[in-house]
Specification:
The protein is an alpha/beta fold. Helix content is 41%, strand content 22%. It is built from six helices and nine strands; from the N terminus they run E-H-E-E-E-H-E-E-E-H-E-H-H-E-H.
């Protein structure tokens, strides 16, 4: 598939700073968290009677890939707006990448679609942001409390579980094709990708 735009997929553990780093690239940024399934979707995975929002099955990979492919081909698409506190999509918004040969799609499940994006010919690169675990835990907890995503007790319990699982998360993402990198090296890789695309154009 010969497309005018290509995607850089940015994965990494929850709270590792993916959104912040994606913005630092200077590229258009698609938030993949907006492709979570609605809270009443019967296909949502459950653990101990509660929805397991940390499972890839809680996320609509097919819709995310279709939107990325549309952006790569047309340069613009309508994307969902997801309210995490309400556990559902509440609106859509226009997203435009026509001024850039690359755009970033970031989210904890970005690695799940590496192979499909590669198969469709829209992938420029795929990375997993690697940060010290303690810093990630504190950043995630501060963000979730500030945004009132869930009750504080739930957020602390989830944060400790994610802290424990973080090495396994990065191993899985690497196995799916997202190369683990620190922040500085990741920014350099994306800058090199952009320079190469601009040179070819």
């Amino acid at each position: 598939m010969n497309t005018p735009h290509h995607v850089v997929l940015l994965a990494g553990p929850s709270g590792s700073g993916k959104s912040y780093l994606a913005r630092r690239t200077g590229l258009p940024v698609l938030c993949l968290d907006d492709f979570y399934k609605d809270g009443d979707d019967p296909s949502l995975p459950r653990r101990d009677g509660l929805v397991d929002w940390d499972s890839p099955q809680s996320w609509d990979a097919e819709a995310a890939v279709a939107t990325i492919a549309r952006l790569a081909r047309d340069g613009k698409a309508e994307v969902p707006v997801y309210a995490i506190g309400a556990d559902r999509r509440v609106a859509t918004r226009p997203f435009d990448v026509t001024g850039s040969p690359l755009f970033v799609a970031e989210g904890i499940f970005a690695a799940e679609i590496v192979e499909e994006c590669r198969r469709r010919g829209v992938l420029a690169g795929a990375y997993a942001l690697r940060r010290p675990r303690g810093a990630t835990f504190l950043r995630r907890l501060a963000r979730d409390l500030a945004e009132q995503r869930k009750a504080p007790r739930v957020l602390v319990r989830r944060g400790l579980a994610l802290l424990r699982d973080e090495p396994a998360v990065l191993r899985r993402q690497a196995g799916l094709g997202a190369h683990p990198l620190g922040a500085g090296e990741l920014l350099r890789r994306v800058a090199d990708l952009l320079a190469g695309h601009l040179w070819r154009s």
